[in-house]
Every structure is written in C-alpha cells, then in structure tokens.
Amino acid sequence: GERGSKQKIIQGEGGRFKVSPHLSSVYVMRSRLVLAIVFLETAVRIGAPTAPADLAAIQAFYVSTNGTRWREGFTWQNGIEGGLDPCDNLEYYKGLTCNGAGGDPNRQITQIWLSAMSLEGTLPPNFGDMTAMTQLYLTYNNISGTIPETICNISSLLFLELSQNKMTGTIPDCINKLQKLQKWDTRNNMLTGTIPASFGQLSELQSLYLSSNRLTGTVPAALFDAKRVEVLFLSYNELEGTVPRIFSRYKIKETASMQGLSWMDLRSNNLQGTYPDMMALLAAV
Q1: Are 65 and 122 in contact (CB under 8 A)?
Q2: pLDDT tens across 102-128, in order?
C-alpha cells in the first residue's frame, strides 16, 4: 500500500486471504465484489446453456454432414472450432433456433433450417436426441444414408422436410410416435420398402409427400385414418395393387376453411383396377 499505511493483506494457507484488522470496511466490500464477479464469470463459462444431449447431437450432425464443406458454413466452423455454445451464440450457428433466452441453462434446439447448404454425408444416430425440435428443413442437399430410428423420439416435431436428397433405406415404423406432426416430406430421394401404415395414426398430419422414391408394396388403407390429411403424394414409386376403396369416403376440400382432401397424386406406379369415384371429384376441385 501507500507509505505509512498500516493496511495489510496476508495470504494464508490454501490460498485464502486474511485481512488485517486495520483494513477499512470499504476495501473489504470491494474485494468481496471482485471475487463475486470472478466467480460468476467462471460459473457462466462452466455451465453450458445448450442441453448436453442437444449439444452432442448437433456436433455429431455437423461432423457427419461434413460441416467444413457446407455452403456458407464458415460461421458454424468458427463456432465449433472456437468452442462456442450453439444456443448462446446463434449468430455463429445460422439456421438454428433454441428455446429459452441467452444464458439460460439446458436450452434445447427447436428449429434447424439448412436447406440448399450443400450438406452431404449422413444423419447421425443420435440426431433424434434433439427432442424439443418442432421444425426440420434440410431440403435440396446431398444427404445420404438412412432416416435414423431416433427421429421418432422428437415427439414435438411439426414439420419434417428432407426432400431433394439422396436418402436410402426404409421409413421408420415408429413414426406413430410423432403425434404432433403436420407435414412429412421425403420426396425425391431413394427410399425403399413399404409405406408404413402407422402414418394413419397421426391425427394432426395434413401433408404426406412420398413421391419420387422407390417405395414398393400396396397403398395402405390405414392412411385414411389420418383424418386431417389434405395432400397425399405417392406418385413415381413402384406401388402395386389397387387404390383402397375406403379412399372413396374422403371428404373433398372445396373451400380454404373446409377440412378435407385437396390433392392426391398416385400416377406412375404399378397400380391396377379402377380409382374410387372420389378421384373424379378431386379433378373438379
């Protein structure tokens, strides 16, 4: 301290500080304030805002889709290499949306918008660990591989858009778990196998786009059970058999406010027999 001052700070065992009796109370308060600020700053650095499962999933997604080669993906690369938390640094992770506010603990990823970004590679097995996601848009990329089974863990999902990619394999049978789903779009891929009848268990489903794949088998009559479906695209596949007769009971959507079917496309398959009478009505809508 200054010459002549009797105030003294002595360091004791374990790095703790002992304050001499002559130290003023003002100095003690200031010292405590500095220590508190340092503690809080350390706590913020240690407590990552993004939930651990979401953080692991988005990091795996970046690696498995060759993030360093994304179109305009340099901000993601800076964020990843800089160890920046995604939900607390969304300006680096463009296309992501998280719930909560900056600095909140355990924030979860709610939206991914990365269409036409030159993504390639595959979706990682833990992709479905982002369980709070509501919107997924990965259209017009070069993603290959299969749709991971864990996608069914995202029970909050409203919109799934994976069209215009190179995805293979089958559609997971567990999709009946996606009870909030309104739109499923996997057009223009290379999906194989049959159309899961469990689509019919989705009470909120409005649009089902499965055209331009390599799907086989028959058109499931159970699709009719999805009462809110307005758009049903199954064209350009390898479907066989006949159009289910129960489809003739579809209500036709004649006005914007009316619930019912407005578009069905079954062309370019190997279907036989006659179409239900309602198909003529659809042509007139």
Answers
A1: yes
A2: 778 899 999 999 999 999 999 999 999
